[in-house]
Fold:
Amino acid sequence: MKTFLKLLKREFKLFWGNSVLRILFIGAPLMYGILLGYVYGKGKVTNLPIIVVDEDHSTMSQRAIEMIDDNEVVHIIAVKTDQIGLTELSINEQAACIVLIPKNFENDILTKRYPEVTTIVNTANVLTANYASTALQVVLGTLKVGTQLEGLRKQGIPESMLMSQYEPFKTTFIKKNNRATNYMYFLWPGILATVLQQVLLLGLALSFAAEFENNTFRDLVAQTRNTFSLIMVKVIPYLLMSFGIWLIYWLFTLWFRVPFTENLGALTLVAGIFVLSVCFIGVLVSILLPNQLKATEVLMVIATPSFILSGFTWPLSQMPKVIQYIADIIPLTHFLPVFRILIIENGPVHLTYHYIINMLIIASISFILAFILLRIKVNKIKMINETDKSHNVQDS
Structure:
């Protein structure tokens, strides 16, 4: 028993003596608990952007717009008078719904012609689509009942007969993009992109850390002192292998009959930028932490919450600003909206430029920092080699 207790004591000492293990075991649960608490702290989605097309410009349509904007779940970001450029505006503003109020809306209600209010629901994100469409159903239903009761009272119909009379207008909800609200179409691509980012980060965590730990970095520098070449030698194999993984993902869409066929060429180019930015982050951490285990552990901590922070499922707009700033430095945050725009929403490429620029900025900053740090290490090796040469000359 004494031996067993002694071994237990030794194990605790080993645990507390390992700073990385201590931080991961205690710090990670604390960090993720706080992080997820802030991400989902609101518990509900509010102020989802929607667009209203008011072709009637009447008192009745204005009342409908005011009632919609009073609902806490949705927020009108634009009121248009026609449908010109509507699709592009919707994609650019990430609108959850588009409400179409037809011409002669008020007049048709007064003359009992039963007009139709159409709501186009963007089901590219199933979660926001459900929230927004439910809110609009409540608002339009309230408007419908209020209009009906008001009109019938003016006609002198008894209160007992009011609810049995006609509806003043009908409402139609049309699903757009992921029309079947297929959860696989919604979630599957985001998870696959997250897995790709994860394996790239973990693989490149070993790139230079393994060289430093195994004392082979000096041999590597002996073959080339060009810092750019040293970085690209580590990155290019992962770029090529990532293309193979991308091809496998495409074959998956055929196997599982997922209808992702539009804009694949453009998305492949953007995926290359995404992979490049992830690779440079991995190389940077590998140079900063010249230990394979530590580099891997740190990148795991970075990569694990990236899907949650990306805004792919839970909107970034619902997260605190600090969390949004953290999310902005993760390449996945900028790649997944590009996927949604090009593949699910079939939008034009120019709407993705903002996200592409952000990934290029992340790649550039990571590359520059990695280049500087690696250059310093190469210069140190160079100085050591020169010192060894001078010692050899003196000895001879």
About this structure: The chain has two domains: 48-176, 183-387. The chain has 17 helices and five strands. The first strand starts at residue 48 and ends at 54.
